[in-house]
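Morning, I've got a small favour to ask if you have a moment. I've dropped the whole record in just underneath, so have a look.
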Amino acid sequence: MRITCIPIVITLALGLVHANVATDNKLPRGVAPSRAKLYTPDTKGQFACLDGSKTIPFMAVNDDYCDCPDGSDEPGTAACGTGYFYCSNIGHTPAYIKTSRLNDGVCDPECCDGSDEFDGQTHCPSVCEQVGAASRKEREKLEKIYKEGNRIRKEYVVYGQSSKTKLKEQLDKLQAASVSVKEAAANAKATLDAANAKLKEYLESTKLEREAARERQLAPLIEQQTQRAEHANKIKSLFRTTLDDLKENHNKNFHDMAVKSTISGYDEYLEELKKQDEDEKNSETDNKEEKEKAQSALERMHAAQDATYDTKKDIGLMFGLIKEMKEKYNTEYNDEAVLKAIKVLDEFAPTWEDSSNDFVGEEFIEIPDEDASDKKEEVKPEDKGALGEVYNRLQKGSSKIGLGFLFKGSKVSKSEVEIAQEAYNKASEEERKSLEEIQKLEKKVNTDYGPDEVFAKLVDRCIEFKEIEYTYTVCLFGEAKQKSHSDTSLGTFSSWEGDNYDTQLYTGGARCWNGPERSVKVMMTCGTENKIVAVSEPSKCEYLYKMETPAVCRDLSEDAKNDSNSNLREAVYPGKKKHDEL
């Protein structure tokens, strides 16, 4: 408290009265009616600082000197600067301003009644009636929006709760049905296992018999294929001898580039053969003859086919070398070695299909089904068309294994194993679909659609906001995107932010160049339509959608019932919660 010697005592007393008493109800200036009890002197005429630090004479309140550490003794002067001044704003809404703004020569808009400039140095007329009228008009407009929005929200709630109930019922039915679906799949698997066991047992018990039958069946075909391989080897030897002679005996003084190119190609071929021979020697760990004896008839047939195919490739390569030389060599040189090679080529050419690396009229020997091994008569090879298909089948090692033996005394189109496999595949697929449907429904049932399931109505509702360069979209509870020439993911729904159910987070979007993954925060306010009203990018690749939706339109009448200290009647003291007020 400040003690000042003033000659005229009457002047001091009048000043204190002016500072302390602002209204007829004796409240100190700057104090709200709701806080009157806090500014009532005790029986000794003392005022207790609101922080409880000390007491001072009540006469020292608003004496333009800061006595209390919290500044609570100067609600109506700028002495402390840390307190708050109450503007009653009759005709509008009461408000608080910092005491540091009192008598600063500025008419603060928060105090529309002009009470912040009470020293008379600055004239601030009261404009609360005009401001209040405009505010009430705006509030009426908002109330209409809230009223209509809340009506729509109630429809959303009815839909959401009904939808959640139906989803739970569907889930219960699917989960109950899935029991029989799982049992059917398990039974089908057991049947398939039994059929496979039966097949395995048969194959093991009849192995020798079947191998003997297969041997008889394929013996003539192996012989035929072996003869073809021998014939191909003779032609291969002929071409190698021809090219060896050309390489050794051509006239090197002619420097014929076509001849040199042919010999160079032949040398490369020989080098490749040498590498192949070395690889084969390194890979052979067992006696070759013993390995061949251990091979089944089918394996020997495939080996003969492979050998024939490889030999024909070699023939085709050498045939091509000489053919190209024939087309490009210098005919004026009359090189005998060259002419000899060309003669061999011309004599062989009519029997060779250059385009397919095969002998004219020689078709692929088709390997018959094993079921045909029961037939006594000799099986003749069946011609099967284009060479490309033949070699494709050869490289896949295709040969059908008949399973008709599992059905005794009857001829059927499908084996027991095949039928069991089809049944299991079908049952397994039904089980997979059932599980998939259950998981989808569980996700929907467990998704947090807000209070009373109000947001269920908006699931997958897609909303757009168009700017000059981009179109921004969000499919609620789905994905947010930025569209231009192509779509860029800004993230998928991950969670709600806070407990108010008015902000959604979308994360895990496409990564920015040299930056984070894109993400979106969708902030919702009350509106009668579902629409995005603004899009911004507060931080790099972190987007903010401002959205209006009926889903967040509260019932204002309920708010009024639950809030007896409504802000419309008196402002809340800054730094205090409403329930802290006395």
